[in-house]
Design brief:
This protein has 353 residues and is α+β, with helices and mostly antiparallel strands. It has ten helices and twelve strands. α1 (2-26) crosses α3 and α1 (2-26) packs parallel to α4.
Length: 353
């Protein structure tokens, strides 16, 4: 009798796993990401969900469990499609209809290059990083995880760039959580001698800040994004559960603040780039009025962390309608646990859309 109960429990666990994976694969389509509890189903790496469902599928086919196999097959396919496949994955000359329309009917600036990178305070290899910037002819940098105590070393090493950060004299909601750990760099030759650069600090009440400047008679905003994680991962299990509501609310709140900031800048050329700590289909990334560089013009799956064997796409580059992305690559520089985003783009001149 005990053996029968154990067998039933064993099969019950596989049934529960099948249902759980199916719910997780369907969750993004059901709008689960719009509620905080839904992140438990929408944020786990899709590559894991797809592989786990495929393994269950094989087991169920061997055992003749056709209905369960159909559920697992659906979960595997849906999760696989949610990895975030670039717009040029299947063809070398595919671009989004929106980008194509803008490119054909509008006056565009020359092509610029942006590097968005959670560099993980790689102060010991800044010479190597500087060489990489010159090799790729990077015009703008959006760097995360540059602590205040390391900032001067970055400034001293990256002399070809004017470096900007948030105003440390300001007070805001999360100003006691180390919010000044990001910097934005602009290649000096692009800034006219008397051009003013405006910095909008803590636009999401934390690390994310925006920098506005003028390049070749065109204004451009670069929003350096680094939101808090959706889940607390720094304590034991009790800390994870006790802070779950606080962290998820904070994470969601940053999304709303960023959306409000975007709405307050209609018609502007804006690029939001950095570590969103959220997958591409989440509400924290799927922001109205912004299109995704990888989904427009990238190739292959969107996987950015961990750098060596990435399983999760948490780093993104988004642009408003006045931004036309021409290239998007994720690069393992060997400097961080994140892959760097190398983005090339053009700006639609005002009044020509």
């Amino acid at each position: 009798m005990l053996k029968i109960y154990a067998l039933r429990l064993y099969e019950g666990l596989f049934l529960a796993a099948t249902i759980g994976l199916a719910v997780g694969a369907l969750a993004p389509y059901l709008g689960a990401g719009h509620i905080r509890a839904g992140m438990l189903f929408t944020y786990p790496p899709r590559i894991f969900v797809s592989i786990a469902a495929a393994m269950l599928l094989l087991r169920q086919l061997r055992r003749g469990q056709r209905r369960l196999a159909a559920v697992s097959a659906l979960a595997a396919v849906l999760a696989f499609s949610q990895i975030g496949w670039g717009g040029r994955t299947l063809s070398a000359r595919v671009a989004t209809a929106a980008s194509g329309t803008r490119a054909s009917s509008a006056k565009l600036t020359r092509e610029y290059t942006l590097l968005a990178f959670n560099i993980h305070n790689a102060v010991g290899r800044l010479d190597e990083f500087s060489q990489f910037l010159e090799k790729e002819r990077v015009d703008f940098m959006s760097l995360q995880e540059v602590p205040e105590h390391s900032r001067k070393r970055f400034v001293d090493a990256l002399t070809n760039y004017a470096i900007f950060h948030g105003d440390e004299s300001l007070e805001f909601e999360h100003d006691d959580w180390g919010p000044f750990a990001s910097i934005t760099g602009i290649r000096r030759e692009l800034l006219a001698e008397n051009d003013a650069v405006a910095v909008d600090t803590a636009i999401t009440q934390y690390r994310t800040f925006a920098t506005e400047f003028r390049v070749h008679d065109t204004d451009l905003w670069i929003v350096n994004v680094h939101t808090t994680k959706a889940f607390w991962l720094h304590d034991d299990l009790s800390g994870i559960f006790s802070r779950a509501g606080y962290k998820s609310a904070w994470h969601f709140g940053e999304r709303d603040d960023l959306a409000n900031w975007i709405d307050a800048h209609p018609g502007d050329a804006v690029i939001a780039a950095g570590d969103f700590n959220a997958p591409h289909y989440s509400t924290n990334v799927a922001l109205d009025g912004l299109h995704n560089a990888h989904l427009d013009i990238g190739r292959g799956p969107h996987l950015s962390i961990p750098a060596r064997f990435p399983i999760w796409g948490l780093d993104h580059t988004l642009g408003t309608e006045r931004i036309v992305f021409t290239e998007y690559r994720l690069i393992d520089t060997g400097l961080s646990d994140h892959r760097a985003q190398l983005v090339r783009f053009r700006i639609v001149a005002p009044g020509t859309t």
